[in-house]
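Data availability (excerpt). The following record was deposited with the supplementary files.
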Amino acid sequence: MKTNHTKGNWHAHDGQIYPEQTGVTVALIPYFDKDNAEHQANSKLIAAAPDMLEALQQFLHSVEHEGVISGRVVDAVRNAKEAIDKAL
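Predicted structure:
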């Protein structure tokens, strides 16, 4: 599936969201306070967006094309859990 967003493994640091490959900021949280737990959680959630999208796409493809007991579904569930963990 073609996407227009910046690909890659995104990271969050001090209110900046950037892909691992380039290190170029793709999102910036204004008025970010590193001591604010909500701000930290929001930046993690944003950084996890590409992982969550990929995990959901893989899960749907596996369920639609291979059934719920295939090995790929197990992989898709693992990836979805990893994306959720990254977001949290």
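Summary of structural features: Residues 4 and 76 are 23 Å apart (CA to CA).
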